[in-house]
Amino acid sequence: MPVPRVRISGPVAGRQTWRLVRDAVAAEPLEPLRLRGKSQPVTAFRLLQIRSDVDPRARRGAAPLVGRASQLRILGEAFANVVRERPVTFRDGAGWRLRVAG
């Protein structure tokens, strides 16, 4: 059975992401989404705004990067380069690029 197309405006977070940011954002639950490649409907939340009364750094380190030692090392080296005022460019396989300069 084909999955019906639904247009959702604005940023949307899945349950795991919402659990990490729920104290720092205002959000509303959406009807469970039927997504291609998923056998069960997926819980989702529309992110409405970032709460100004919460320090966004307050939860830093609350979710460990499990099994991401090499990625964490690369980020640490990139941060050190930016601190030394050397620009760094991050790329992924899909052509996404982010250039960071100090």
Largest sheet: 3 strands, antiparallel
Mean pLDDT: 77
Distance linking N and C termini = 51 Å
List low-pLDDT spans.
none
Percentage of residues in helical conformation? 10-25%
Structural class: alpha+beta
What attributes characterize this protein structure?
3-stranded antiparallel beta sheet, 102 residues, single chain, alpha+beta
Polypeptide structure, described:
The protein has 102 residues and is of the alpha+beta class. Among the domains are: 12-50, no CATH class; 69-100, no CATH class. It is built from two helices and five strands; from the N terminus they run E-H-E-E-H-E-E. It has helices spanning 15-21, 69-83; strands at 12-14, 25-29, 44-50, 88-91, 97-100. The strands form two sheets. It has a three-stranded antiparallel beta sheet. Strand 4 (88-91) and strand 5 form a beta hairpin.
